Amino acid sequence: MKTFLAGAxxxxxxxxxxxxxxxxxxxxxxxxxxxGGPEVLKYENVPRPEPKDDQxxxxxxxxxxxxxxxxxxxxxxxxxxxxxxxxxPGADIAGVVEKAGSKITKFRMGDPVYAYxxxxxxxxxxxxxxxxxxxxxxKPKSLTHVEAAAVPVVSLTAWQALIDTAKLSxxxxxxxHGGSGGxxxxxxxxxxxxxxxxxxxxxxxxxxxxxxxxxxxxxxYTKTKFEDAAKDVDxxxxxxxxxxxxRSYGVVKKGGFIVTLVARVDQAELDKHGIRxxxxxxxxxxxxxxxxxxLIDESKIKVVVSQTFQLADAAKAQEQxxxxxxxxxxxLKVADQPK
Length: 339
Ligand SMILES: NC(=O)c1ccc[n+]([C@@H]2O[C@H](COP(=O)([O-])OP(=O)(O)OC[C@H]3O[C@@H](n4cnc5c(N)ncnc54)[C@H](OP(=O)(O)O)[C@@H]3O)[C@@H](O)[C@H]2O)c1
Fold this sequence. Notes:
The protein is built from eleven helices and 15 strands. The longest helix is centred in the middle third of the chain and has 14 residues, at 152-165. It starts with 9 loop residues before the first helix and ends in a 6-residue tail after the last strand. Helix 4 crosses helix 5. It has two domains: 27-151 and 304-333, Quinone Oxidoreductase, Chain A, domain 1, CATH 3.90.180; 154-279, Rossmann fold (3-Layer(aba) Sandwich). The protein is of the alpha/beta class. It binds NADP nicotinamide-adenine-dinucleotide phosphate (NAP).
C-alpha cells in the first residue's frame, strides 16, 4: 500500500515505497576504483558519508590538492597500505558543519571549519566529508573557503617540521628548500614568525614570491648552488630529496638539524657532520591548525592560491600538481562560497 506524506516531494517518497526506508542521500565526488594515472579519477554520484558519534559531517566548499593525492592514486603506497576501493582522494577541506555526532562538543551545525581529514573515513574531493574533532578547526575568518582549503596539510607539515621536530628558535638560521611551494610558502612565514633568519630556494620565476613571503635570502637554484649562499645554518627543511638532500648535510652547523619530508635521513652523513635529523610524516592536529588559523587572522601568515579547478576537473589539478612546480597551492572548487 502506498503512503502519502504531506509536504514531501515525489522524489523523496519513491525510495521509501520501494525499500521501506529512506534512501541514503547521495553526493557528487571524485572516485578511484583502481590504481592508475589521472584518468582513474571518476566524477560520480556516491552515498553521502554518515558521521559517527565522534565525527562531524562537513558540506565541502573547497578541497586542497596535495602531491601525495596523486601518489596514493598511482598506487605508490600500495605495498605499505592497500587502498580500500572505491576511494575518494583528498585530505584538505574547508566547508560548513552540516551535522554533528552525539559526542561532538566543539562544533555546531553551520560552523565554518577547515580540516586535514583521514582518508580512512572519507575523502575531500567530494560534496561532503567527515572529520573528527582532532582533525578540524574553525576556519580562519579572514580567509575564503578556497584559501582555507589550501592550508591544513602543508601548514601542519611546515609547523611539525620546524617547530615540533627541529625546534627552530629565535635568532637561528633555517634553509628552506622549495620555498615557493605549498609546504615552503608556510615554512618561510612560520620561521619568520618564530624570529628565525630564512634562506629559501626556488626557480627564477618564484624569486619574487620568496621575498614577498619574508625570506631574508632568496636563492635561484637554477643559477646558484645553495651551498655557495647558505653555510652553517641551524636547520634545513628539505621537501626535494635526492641530490638536494645529499648536498644539504654539509651546510648545517655542528649540533644542527635536517628534517626531510621525502626521504630517509642518512645516519652516516648525520654522524659525519655532527648533526641530527629526522624524516617527518605529517599528522592531523586541530590545536596546531587553530594556532595557524590565529596567525593567519592576525595577518602574520598569508595564503597563496595560484590556481583553482572545478571538482569535476580534479584530474587536471593533479596533473598540474605533479609537475612539482606549483606556486603556493592548487584548490578544487566544490560549491559556491556561502554568503
Ligand atoms: N612527509 C610528509 O608528511 C609530507 C607532507 C607534505 C608534503 N610532502 C612532500 O613534500 C614535497 C613538497 O610538497 P609541496 O606540497 O610543498 O609541493 P609543491 O607545492 O609542488 O611545491 C614544490 C616546490 O618545490 C620547488 N622546487 C622544485 N624543484 C626544486 C629544487 N630542485 N630546489 C628547490 N626547489 C624546488 C618548486 O618551485 P619552482 O617551481 O620554483 O621550481 C615548488 O614551488 C612533496 O614531495 C610532497 O609529497 C611530504
